[in-house]
Amino acid sequence: MKKLFKYILVLNVLIISCQSEDDLVKNNSYHLKEVGYSARDILSNEKFTDIFVEILYVKDFKPSNEVLASFKNFISERTFKSNINIETKLIDIPLESSYSINKIRSIEDENRTKFSTENELAIFILYLNGASSNNEEDSLILGTAYRNTSFVIFKETTDSFSDSNLFGEKNTILESAIVRHEFSHLLGLVNVGTPIIENHHDSANGAHCTSENCLMYYKMERMNTVVNFFDQEKIPELDAFCLQDLRSNGGR
Ligand SMILES: [Zn+2]
Ligand SMILES: [Zn+2]
Q: Which tens digits make up the pLDDT trace of 112-147?
């Protein structure tokens, strides 16, 4: 009898936690959670079978087709989503030279049109001119994940590194790398929604990986204006520890 009671209690807790998540989708507030909250929902097909990526960009800062194709590959390599749709749309907003995360949240709130539905999870990406207000003198931020399904790419800042003589043709490599990096934060890396199996969390530098060669190394999203770190011939991969974490949290 005691056992049965315990079982019913556990079942109730499960139903209540499921309901609250469904309510978030129904109330259109599922997208307002913290980074990492949706890690398992994005990685697995347990709750959402499909994924829709809405990319809004400001004039002159549209993502390239190569970057979109590379990003779609990455989603299919890491997640179990059956259908992957990516749509880009120009938005006409007052441009600024520098954007705070609060400002970016309000741009999302006013312009986002796709929200998660019963089977389809929606991701929001904002492509901006200008710079992050969190930049430091010699270290510029290329992108930031700021909600469970949202991140921003500072395309003008990214281009300023890609277009330099040092990088030449490597333009889309850096942009693809930063899009994959920010998306991987939404996948819960590192130790932010997806628990670590081995200790590779560079906690001194936020939700990043200790491996210098990993896509999730902290310098991937911060370019040093004096000594450029990014001189790669190809997009950096996730290392074995990051991959192990994703797989243990429902990923591929
Ligand atoms: Zn990062
Ligand atoms: Zn790693």
A: 999 999 999 999 999 999 999 999 988 899 999 999
Q: Is the dihedral of CA 80, 85, 90, 93 positive or negative?
A: negative
CA–centroid distance, residue 248 to ligand 2 (Å): 14
**Predicted pLDDT of residue 162:** 74
The pTM for the full model equals: 0.90
Report the CATH fold assignment for 34-248.
Collagenase (Catalytic Domain) (3.40.390)
Cα(242) to centroid of ligand 2, in Å? 4
Whole-number Å distance, alpha carbon 160 to ligand 1 midpoint, is 19
pLDDT of residue 68: 97
Q: Where are the domains of the chain?
A: 1-32, 34-248
Residue ranges of the chain whose pLDDT lies below 70: 1-19, 163-171, 227-231
Please tell me the number of the ligand nearest to residue 236's CA: 2
| Residues having C-beta closer than 5 Å to ion ligand 2 | 209, 211, 214, 216, 239, 242
- Which ligand has an atom closest to residue 215 CA? 2
What is the rounded distance in angstroms from the CA atom of residue 115 to the CA atom of residue 121? 7
Residue type, position 110, single letter: E
